[in-house]
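Attaching the record inline, Q. Sequence:
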Amino acid sequence: MSNTNIKKVRTSDLELKDRLVSIQRVTKVTKGGRTFSFSAIVVVGNEDGVVGYGLGKASEVTAAISKGVEDAKKNLVRIPVINGTIPHKQEYRFGGSLVMVRPAAPGTGIIAGGAMRAVLESVGVKNVLAKSKGSSNPHNLVKATIGALCELRDAHSIAQLRGIPMSQVFNG
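Structure, as predicted:
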């Protein structure tokens, strides 16, 4: 996500909802035997264009989830959502995962699976077509989905960037 149009968001004035994407039991082998702990990937969002993800690790499931939520609140970004969908088609690759998101007509719903669905619901997108190819690793899918959403730009930001009025954006 080395994009310049990523907008950081303050958490103080937002009402965030968290979604657990994945929880894994991990094992550390020591001289005294195996030590079990948990790793949790959490996505938080206000369902109005703000989303973030975090990773928490702890010896208890609840502690891992709460650490993931705290980490996610530190990584919030604003995503342009127009009429319940995204402004344009976007692809993004992170690691072995490739995600493609496309805007959809009203009434379509969120056509996405697993980790992508959690991110898109947290953003507040109501109608979108999404496809993942390659690795189905939840870590990479969440990062690729948020990367694709961060690269989205709406017409207003393009007009500001080019220094032209909104009426000229679509008229070439």
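The chain has a mean pLDDT of 89. The longest helix spans residues 61-73.

More tomorrow.
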